[in-house]
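Quick one, probably user error.
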């Protein structure tokens, strides 16, 4: 009877099986490492892109803040210029208003009547002066009432006064500033309607 020794064959198969298992395990580990590395690179790339986007957004935000700051500065400058223009306009009005009223007084003051004082307090005007007689004072008051600058003319006091040996009438007059005229509005007939000047009794 022939005997065959199978031990070397079994050992070779076991060795071959072990090598295959080691190869499979090594390949699995390598595959896992590759997948992990790929995932890491992808995440790293996403983080880098996100950082770049954040940097870009911060730069845009900084530019917007600069523009907003310039707009606020321009707005502030515009307000300052407007305030200065308002002040200049007010000064111009205050300068032209009294000058015009004094010019009106100079035009309507009769001869032999002299103004010695003129004061304004809001809309209230106070005039003081000297005249040869009461008729001149009455004529001056009528001229005031008819002017475009004054209204509600009243004689406060008149008394005899002697200056350099000449007897004169000393007087104090109060009146009000005429308000700005309202633009004429057309009536039903088509002709403009003029605002009426208020009549005030004279003393």
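Nope, works fine. Designed sequence:
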């Amino acid at each position: 009877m022939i005997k065959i020794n199978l031990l070397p064959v079994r050992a070779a198969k076991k060795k071959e099986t072990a090598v295959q298992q080691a190869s499979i395990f090594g390949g699995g580990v390598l595959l896992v490492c590759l997948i992990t590395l790929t995932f890491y690179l992808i995440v790293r790339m996403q983080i880098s892109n996100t950082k770049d986007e954040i940097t870009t957004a911060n730069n845009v935000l900084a530019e917007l803040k600069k523009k907003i700051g310039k707009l606020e500065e321009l707005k502030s400058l515009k307000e300052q210029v407007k305030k200065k223009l308002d002040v200049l306009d007010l000064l111009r009005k205050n300068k032209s208003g009294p000058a015009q009223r004094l010019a009106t007084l100079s035009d309507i003051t009769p001869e032999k009547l002299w103004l010695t004082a003129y004061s304004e307090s809001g809309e209230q005007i106070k005039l003081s002066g000297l005249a040869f007689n009461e008729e001149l004072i009455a004529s001056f008051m009528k001229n005031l009432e008819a002017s475009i600058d004054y209204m509600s003319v009243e004689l406060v006091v008149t008394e005899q006064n002697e200056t350099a040996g000449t007897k004169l009438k000393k007087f104090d007059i109060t009146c009000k500033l005429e308000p700005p005229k309202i633009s004429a509005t057309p009536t039903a007939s088509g002709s403009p309607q003029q605002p009426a000047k208020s009549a005030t009794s004279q003393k």
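The chain has two domains: 34-108, 111-180.
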